[in-house]
Amino acid sequence: MSEWDHGTAGSDATSDDAELCMLQADPELAGMFFTEALDHLGSIENIVLALESAPTDVRLLNDVFRPFHTIKGNAGALGITSVQEAAHEVESLLDLGRSGKHVIGPAEIDVILKAVDVLTEMIGGLKRRVDGQAAPDSTDDRRALIAEVERIIAGGSTAAPPPPPVSVAPREPEPEMSFAGFGPVPAPEPAAVHPGASAPDARIGGAKSDAVKVDTVKVDTRKLDNLVDMVGELVIVQAMINEDPTLRRACDERLGRNLNQLKRITTDLQRNALAMRMVPVRQTFQKMQRLARDLGKKSGKTVDVELSGEETELDRQVVEDINDPLMHMVRNSCDHGIEDAEARARAGKPAQGRLKLSAYHHGGSIVIAVADDGGGLPTEKIRGKAIAQGLIGEGDPLSDNEIHQLIFRPGFSTADTVTEISGRGVGMDVVRGNIEALRGKVEIRSVAGRGTTFLIKLPLTLAVLDGLVLRAGDERFVIPIFAVCESLRPKPEQVHEVQGRPQMIQVRNSLLPLVSLAELLGIGEVPAPAHERTAVVIEDDGQRIAVLVDDLLGKQEVVIKSLGLAFAGVRGIAGGAILGDGRVGLILDAAGLVELVSNTSACVA
Amino acid sequence: MSLATARTDDPATGTTARATPGKYLTFSLASEEYGVSVLKVREIMKMMDITVVPQVPSHVRGVINLRGKVIAVVDLRLKFGFEAKEETDETAIVVVEIAVDGGTILTGLVVDSVSDVLNIVSDEIEATPAFGDRVKTDYISGMAKVKGRVKILLDLDRAIGWDARMSA
Predict the structure, then answer these.
(1) Which residues of A touch B (CB under 8 A)?
(2) For a FRET experiment, which of A142, A143, A336, B60 has its CA 20 to 30 Å from that of B118?
């Protein structure tokens, strides 16, 4: 059994401190240990999920055994007995598994996944303590894990070895799930074949296909961010030199060519630097697979997750930030979208619910889709709830799509009971907020009885923005081009006054609120009649307003700079941009401006 | 923690000077002289155009471009309650590092003029007398008397530290 004495209650505190000392003594070694161990733990999870469908696959068993073994060894070398101990237990179980002495059944898979969680918690906790932060105590979790593994080993195999794979005609290729709706519902499966035996590869979305490894180097993300910052500065200085009037005057052909060359190289450099921050969505998608599996177990449904386009790359920060929204959507699909086995059988659907996560490029954006083949959004329920909440009127003519959009309102949920997992009504509005903070949009396509698809559209890069530069008074502003509908020189007859001041403008057939940018933001200006200025029509989420400015200074691709915590509460401003002459121009936030207008125009009848 | 904190207790006010001896950059504001530890000073620049940011307190002048980084600029005169004054050739922006929430951020401070870097020894540091409300005394880490002139040593993190309440 275990060769370690689990010790008396008091000894853990001192051994914790001892471990901390060892790690603090050599920060570089500690850093390497943490990074490697957490890396390993991340990759183990996916292999275990593959193992679940093919528990006798010796290659997979080895692939899971090895990282635990490595973690144990590294921890031992650094004197981190807590991790060493826990890893050793699991390693023993896996060793029995790969020598055929203990069948890896569902209970074993569960405990291995639990071990991944506990070890991640332990190592994460150590890392935080080394950094001087507090971390929860994992002693109890660790002890519980070790006890459970020992119990399982002692109890011998409880799972029956799987039947030898029945030879079965290869599955009909499923019709591609398209996003405009689902293809014909696939015919119910031929009876009773152990699901894993036939086609694990297609299911688990390429965990095995990762065998093709690209040569990589581990780089501290801070160094990377510094590099990207410096390249950003280079781009700005280069632009300033290019536009310097003295230089322009003195410019001859040769100098001109060299300046152009400089500009080309700098642009390339920036593109490459930004590309270094890109990582594939694979890891995030795989986390969703695990989530769907766990949720399925809890609710008694089986959900099969299919991945597509997981090699698609996104900015590192975006990948982190979409994690929560994706989790919400996966939860919604698993809890509310996908029906239980009975309901699915009645609808002629296969017992296994299907969830497809895909990522692809479309136009200048990245699209991430979460599609399920469940029952679709309950349109009538939503309508009823919205009426009850006073969001719409009884007789309001709203299309199905418009009804579906209502789920993004705060506090909206049609779940009859609040389940532990979701249905609490705080989900979708936060999801949309998070996505919009990334300058993205989220759309829903839902067909009753067939399923629901969420589409998240994100800009390709966080750092650079295509903007329109405006002048209002002495200050210059940048508004993202995608928020601009059009700009015009208002004619006096288009402008309508209310209470003696211009408040509305007629643009073709619509009457839009008209407001001066300077006034809206609360900065001073010299008033001028509307028809001597320029009106820019901006749009956010279907709402349009017309903003008066003094001048349009042209299009510019600008590097977005955060203004920092101090300015987080300023409404209507999304950040700063460094303009061609080196000065800062504030980036306008369309949503914020529209909100400001609807707040201030409350006084307009 | 520094090994040589000047623990000069003023029995009259009961305050203790926190300032540590070392090099301080001194500058003037109205008729008073201030000092900040050079360790916190990143850069000194001539006054430049500041982009105004709306909806912030008046002592926050706005933002500037510091070699590719956008940083906030605070007018110390206004912050400390002095009257605003016309800029002169001597007006400068001192870029300092402020410790905030476990990290540091750069902020620019507008001052009337920048003086010398002085090496202040512990003998020269005294506790802060009770001032009244002009400058809240917790902004002050000590007083230094150098060559007969008094410099007010600022605790920058406390004086300028941003917190979420700033942007309400």
Answers:
(1) 229-230, 232-233, 236-237, 475, 521-523, 561-573, 575-576, 578, 582-586
(2) B60
- Per the structure block, which two tokens stand in for B10? 């003023």
pLDDT tens, A330-358? 888 888 888 888 888 888 888 888 999 99
Query: Per the structure, how many domains does chain B have?
Result: 1
pLDDT 10s digits, A402-446: 888 888 877 676 554 334 444 444 567 778 888 877 778 888 888
Q: Please identify which residue in the block is written with the tokens 């400015």.
A: A549
A279-459 topology per CATH = Heat Shock Protein 90 (3.30.565)
On whether the pTM is more than 0.90, the answer is: no
Which residues of chain A have a CB within 8 Å of the CB of B56? 566-567, 570
CA A506, CA A493: separation in Å to the nearest integer? 9
User: Residues of A with CB below 8 A from B52's CB?
Assistant: 475, 523
Q: Where are the domains of chain A?
A: 12-155, 225-276, 279-459, 464-603
Alpha-carbon gap, residue B106 to A432, rounded angstroms = 32
The CATH number of the domain holding residue B72 is 2.40.50.180
Q: Which of A400, A258, A252, A425 is nearest to A332 (CA)?
A: A425
Q: Do A578 and B65 touch (CB under 8 A)?
A: yes
The ipTM of this complex is: 0.75
A230 vs B contacts (CB less than 8 Å): 68
CATH number attached to the domain at A12-155: 1.20.120.160
Name, of A245-259, A410-424, B119-133, the range with top average pLDDT. Answer: A245-259
* CATH of A464-603 among 2.40.50.180, 3.90.550.10, 3.40.50.1260, 3.40.50.10420: 2.40.50.180
In a domain, B7, yes or no: no
Contacts (Cβ under 8 Å, ≥6 apart) of A255:
A247
